[in-house]
Every structure is written in structure tokens, then in C-alpha cells.
Amino acid sequence: MGIQITPSILNTDFSRLGEEISRISSADMVHVDVMDNHFVPNLTFGPSMVEALSRATDIPLDAHLMIEDADRNAPAYAEAGASSVTFHVEAAKAPIRLAREIRALGARASMALKPATPIEPYEDLLPELDMLLVMTVEPGFGGQKFLDLCLPKIRRARALMEKHGVETWLQVDGGVSLETIERCAEAGADVFVAGSAVYSAADPDAMVRQLKATAEAASPLV
Ligand SMILES: O=C(CO)[C@H](O)[C@H](O)COP(=O)(O)O
Ligand SMILES: [Fe+2]
Fold first, then answer.
1. Which residues are recorded as binding substrate (predicted)?
2. Which end of the chain is more exposed for a tag (fewer CB within 10 A), N or C?
3. What b/e sequence results for 28-39 when a residue is b if at least 16 CB atoms lie within 10 Å of its CB, and e otherwise?
4. How far apart are CA 182 and CA 192, in angstroms?
5. Which domains does the chain have, with CATH numbers?
6. Is this prediction's ipTM beyond 0.85?
């Protein structure tokens, strides 16, 4: 699949989301940050918004669920038309069952790790996952500073994927910009969320293409 850029609409004008998405036509997916004000101290969208967005764009939707009780709440986002559904392992009681349920509903199953959550206890789950998300900020808000301390975990996650021989995508999210994307790509990430870097640019679509070219040049995978 190569390098993918998935702009986050978290810091855009929520009254014009269709237009905001039309400004990033080079995006591989649109990253939709779902927050419930419990798992994180911020509140955004629910499944009905994901369903409306899936009607408004042909770009696949990448739903990042920062919500409690993922086992019960995540499947609704696959039913709403998200192409990829990411639950946080810290909010899931039965991550294997949940990943299988998401796949059975026709979406890609993805699991996220907060910065302080290690990958090693979950390495045997990798074959159940289409994507692993390593957070590079504490989840909850856009525009935060990239946490360099997450880079070794990205490297370890890529090594575990190679050990298990899986095709699981490795996504990074939080503070990704032209300044930080090279480090993530060198460490083995192949799917890059960028919110403020894309939408604060004068030309968001040109920024998507620039981020992709920068990651491709730094990646050992392409
Ligand atoms: O999940 C998130 C925050 O919890 C967002 O996807 C992320 O922060 C994107 O915004 P930025 O690129 O501005 O950091
Ligand atoms: Fe996110």
C-alpha cells in the first residue's frame, strides 16, 4: 500500500466539514477523531456524523475512537461506513473479539496505544489487526507537540510486525508535521495522521502531497 497520509479534521470548521474534506483530495483517508468526554476530556462526533461524512466524500474514513467501552460502542462506526475503525486497547475488555467483529462488519480493524502503553503485551494480536496506531501525543486535542519518546515504540512495533510476518499498517498520530514525519517514517511508520500541519497550511492539499513525499524519501519500506 505504501505511504499514506490521513489528515485529521479535528481542528477544522465543523460547520463546513464537507468543504474542509474537499480541500484534501490527495488524502488516502480522512481521519475522524471521535471523543466521548470520558476516555479523553473532549467531545466531538458520533456514528451519525461518520455516516453523514461517508455520504459526503469518496475518500475512505479512518475513525479513531477515543471512547470508553469500545467493545460495545465501536461496531456502530463500522456500520456507519467507516473504512477503518480504531479502538483504544486501554478502553477494550476483549480486543480480539472486537477486532474480529469489526472485520466481520466489513471494516479494517485497528487498535491504538496511548504513549505510555507498551506494544509487547499485544504482539500476538497483530495478525488480528489491519492497522496499529501508536499515539505520539496524549489523546484528546489537536495541535500538541510530538512526543519523541514514542519513536522507540514505533521501531519495536515495526520489528514485531516483521517477526510475525503480518501486513498490518503502522499509523502514527499526534504532532506529525514536515518537521517530525521523517523521524516517524525512518522508525517504520507507514500511515501518518496530520491535523494542524495540513489545515494550517495555505494549501492543505499541497501539504498532504509534501508530507507524503517527505515520508517516502525517509522510509525504509518504499
Ligand atoms: O487523535 C488526535 C488527538 O487525540 C488527533 O488525530 C491528532 O492530534 C491530530 O492533530 P495534530 O496533527 O494537530 O496533532
Ligand atoms: Fe486521532
1. 8, 64, 140-143, 173-175, 195-196
2. N
3. bbbbbbbbbeeb
4. 11
5. 4-218 (3.20.20.70)
6. yes
How does the average pLDDT of the chain come out, rounded? 98
Phi first, then psi, for residue 199 (nearest 5°) are -85, -10
pTM of the complete model beyond 0.95: yes
Q: Provide the grid cell at 56.
A: 459526503
- Residue 138, C-beta contacts closer than 8 angstroms, at least 6 positions apart: 114, 115, 144, 174
Owner of C-alpha cell 517530525: 180
pLDDT digits (tens, 9 = 90+) for 133-167: 999 999 999 999 999 999 999 999 999 999 999 99
Binding site membership of 7 for ligand 1 (Cβ less than 6 Å): no
Distant-in-sequence, close-in-space partners of 190: CB < 8 Å, separation ≥ 6: 1, 2, 3, 4, 169, 170, 171, 219, 221
Best mutation site among 173, 176, 184 for ligand 1 pocket (most ligand atoms within 8 Å of CB): 173
Q: What is the spatial distance between Cα 6 and Cα 171, in angstroms, rounded to a whole number?
A: 9
Q: Which atom of ligand 1 is nearest to the CA of 144?
A: 14
